[in-house]
Amino acid sequence: MTSRVAVQLEPEWLEGVRIVDVHFDGRRVWSVASEAIPAGRLSWPAALKPYLDGRTTMTLHDAATGTVIGTEELRFGRSQDRIALRDAAGRPLAMNKWNRLGPVFDGGNVELRSRLLENAQRIVEVLEAEAFAVYIVGGSLLGYMRTGGLMAHDDDIDLAFLSEHSDPSDIGLDSFRMQRALEAAGYTVVRHSLAHLEVDFFDAQGHVEHYVDIFTGYFRDGLYCQPFALRGPEVVREDLVPVRRVEVDGVELPAPARPEAWLEYAYGPSWLVPDPSFVFETSRWTRRRFENSFGVFNRARVYWEKHFLSLGGAAEPDHDDRDAVLRWAAALPTGARVLDVGCGTGAATNLIASSGHEVLGIDFSHEALSIAVERAVPGARFAYVNVNDRRDLLALGARMLATGDVWYVRIADVLHGLTMANRHTLFRLLELVLRGGGVATGTVPTTLPSGYRRGDPTSWHYPEEWFQNELSNHRLQVEFMETSRRHTAHGTRDEVAFVIRPINAHQSAQPMREDDSA
Q1: Pick from 114, 126, 187: which is nearest to 157 by CA?
Q2: Any bridge partners for residue 190, and if so which?
Q3: What is the predicted pLDDT for the residue at 508?
């Protein structure tokens, strides 16, 4: 039986080979530099390990020539089935340039590539009509320059546009203008930052089938910048515009004036030599500069999209106490309107609506909302709103105020999964909408589990002291109610219930009483 940690290869297989492509049952799933295989010991990447249960024929290829250098039959765990590296939607998965497991073209729906290219072409037409200088970049440009088409191990199309501005505020305004143009044309736009948009396309079941990334390029202090990963002097304006027309797998798209210059800037001087093991490495200072200038609105979104996709269209198991939700709904004033923040697949939203209230459930996962909308009961509505995006959230607040109604806000099991900056954004929404007696209620785990992982927001925590300190920056006050023990995927954890109320002009925040946290 093969170890899920590593497999021992014949050292002579690697002689003279720089990059190794690892195939399972004839499909590439990973590429690794031979220097990262000490003494022939091939260690499995962490993202791959959960799928290592069953049998597969592993073939190793020289990535430069495609030559098979070794073959071995592997068996992991007790399963007799062939290992199927596919997501819940059936899409083939492979390790990508961000060292993550993601969908790829290779081994998937052959029509997907055509749909993606055609949709990218239509997006370009919309943006060029608005005078945006758009060009393909990243793996899309690399694939064109190597083969004339998209690379088999890629998963999207990358576009960028050149902004004429250098100040982050002006660049953000460019991006918002682009977003308005795309949404007016009927596209679904997900904002990653003030300098990065994603345009999503859905299949018949409501899953995200494919997407197009649109990055922002600009010059500042003699450097070409393309958040979120690239900043350097290697590219000048004449390398980018005016754009040239190229055919990618037969579909015409715009490319930089000198594609070679952009590719060397991003991938180094050996960009023409295939290296599927390439991983982007962005310096801490560059990443911090971009995040401080343009924000990050995508925190944990990919985690939740994968989580809800794994449910296969089924409603998420109800972790809420059904009776507690119904009691809470019954205590609301007759006809009260409710905002359910982080509604997921809508189980609690539907319970509250079934009690006779109008409820708006919001989430930033399209996969969750596709399930929620399908199962919505009368009185329940669902909408995509990104809690990480201040503009998106405060626009929702303005619409809520415009109704003239009193709103009650439910924030169950949400706050600990946000960063501090994004909690402050949510608190600003509460300052705006909690009027006329409305309050916000919810629960939050206060203890860090032994299985904490930085990439898993369900393992994060939010102690009461942090809660109070952060809320002191807003005209809000929190009252802690009962503390309970809850069984979770990370073990038994302490969870506290809370009520957030606005502080009126004649009131100051009161310190928490000792018995409030009991």
Answers
A1: 114
A2: 198
A3: 47
Query: What residues contact 194, with CB distance under 8 A and at least 6 apart?
Result: 168, 171, 172, 175, 293, 294, 295
Least confident segment among 150-159, 312-321, 454-463: 312-321
pLDDT at 104 over 50: yes
pTM: 0.83
Nearest to 395 by CA among 405, 384, 406: 384
Count CB-CB contacts under 10 A for residue 245: 8
Q: How confident is the model at residue 3 (pLDDT cuts 50, 70, 90)?
A: confident
How does DSSP assign 68-87, residue by residue? EEEEEEEEESS--SBP--B-
Question: What pLDDT, in 10s, does the model give residues 204-261?
Answer: 878 888 899 999 999 999 999 999 899 999 999 999 999 999 999 999 999 999 999 9
The whole-angstrom separation of Cα 179 and Cα 187 is 9
pLDDT band at 265 (very low <50, low <70, confident <90, very high): very high
Residues in the chain, overall count:
518
CA-nearest of 145, 177, 185 to 161 is 177
C-alpha gyration radius of the chain: 25
The backbone region for 206, taken as left when phi is positive above 0, alpha when psi lies in -120 to 50, beta otherwise, is left
Q: Write down the pLDDT at residue 277.
A: 66
The answer to whether 113 and 150 have CB atoms below 8 angstroms apart is: yes
For residue 56, the number of C-alpha atoms closer than 13 Å in the C-beta half-sphere is: 21
Angle (CA) 356 360 366, round 5°: 135
Is 253 in a helix, a strand, or coil? strand
Task: State how far the Cα of 139 lies from the Cα of 102, in Å rounded to an integer.
Answer: 14
